[in-house]
Amino acid sequence: MKKFFTLILSTMVVTAFAQGITTPRTPSPAATVSQTIGISTVEVSYSRPAVNGREIWGKLVPYGYQPPGFISTHPAPWRAGANENTVLTLSHEAKIQGQTVPAGSYGLFFVINEDNSGEVVLSKDYKAWGNYWYDPARDQMRAPITIRDHEMTERLTYEFINLDKTSAELVLNWEKKQFPIKIEFAVDDIVMANAREELSNIQGFNWQGWASAANYALNSKTNLEEALQWSDRAVTMNRNFTTLFTKAGILEALGRKDEVGKLREEALAMATEGELNNYGYQLLNQGNIDEAIRIFTLNTQRNPRSANVWDSLGEAYAIKGDEKNAVKNFKKALTMNPPENVRANSEKYLRQYGAL
């Protein structure tokens, strides 16, 4: 019995040693970088080797497709990092270097050639270890890239640059090279599909959900007929400045202008001070200065004790180039013990005019 117990104990000890403990990963620590584009995310998980005085291109990282080592004799691309596969994960379908790639996780590989041409490769075998078991039949995509010269980067780094509404460049920087790939999402289509899903859930029980979906479609000039249905639902649930203004904007975008003026005037009649002020600045941003002045003037009539509305009216006149009325309204704002930010804005303009 004692021998049997000793055997069990020995087996447990061996098993424990076989599993090992969690220790720091050296010399290539693990890292993760992610970026949101629209409402989609791109994430890269990788390990970060250092240059450490080594010759990288054509030596440590071979040119072209080369066998990775003793385990495999099949030509393979570079695993774009160290240790396990570098893994690229997309939350939604995307275009990478112009090619459509479904949502999911992929092994990310690169190829570099002596002339700085190269390729990006995405493999469905993202759980494999590096490129030792690379199989070209499992490629999701391959696409050419142009590798750039770059400032010295000691430790391999991924980052996102050149972001806009629908795209970004994911770049790998190491030594004096940069490997770029462009990632694009059909943001408006993704947002609209997500809106339909959310509006069938808890968001559909309040007017704000329908109004925000309709407003996004209006601002993006997409799915306007559907957006009109959403705005109608929002108006039915709560007839207020936001819902009426959004509906008016959609009707105008659809070329159905008969109701627009009436809806906007109804909305303005129930607008708060903040809503009027925000609308006035929207008009200024659109270059519609006279209408902005009308809205700011309306706000001063409704809220004559608010320093902020007089300051805003002064700003509209200043943009128009009407110094006399600008100075008059800025001075009016300063007589009302304004908040510090309002005081600073009025005083700034008055100094410019030499009126302070």
Describe how the helices and strands are arranged:
Layout: H1 2-19, E1 30-37, E2 40-47, E3 87-90, E4 94-96, E5 99-101, E6 104-112, E7 117-123, E8 139-146, E9 148-161, E10 167-184, H2 187-199, H3 207-220, H4 224-237, H5 241-253, H6 260-269, H7 273-285, H8 289-302, H9 307-320, H10 323-334, H11 340-352
Helix pairs in contact: 2-3, 3-4, 3-5, 4-5, 5-6, 7-8, 7-9, 8-9, 9-10, 9-11, 10-11
Question: Could you explain how this protein is built, in words?
Answer:
Helix content is 42%, strand content 23%. It is of the alpha+beta class. It has two domains: 25-185, no CATH class; 188-352, Serine Threonine Protein Phosphatase 5, Tetratricopeptide repeat, CATH 1.25.40.10. The longest helix is centred in the first third of the chain and has 18 residues, at 2-19. The N and C termini lie far apart (100 Å).
The CATH architecture designation of the largest domain is: Alpha Horseshoe
SSE topology string: HEEEEEEEEEEHHHHHHHHHH
Give the helix/strand class: alpha+beta
CATH top level label of the largest domain: Mainly Alpha
Task: Please describe the structure with a list of short key phrases separated by commas or semicolons.
six-stranded antiparallel β-sheet; Serine Threonine Protein Phosphatase 5, Tetratricopeptide repeat; alpha+beta; single chain; 356 residues; 42% helix; 2 domains; 10 strands
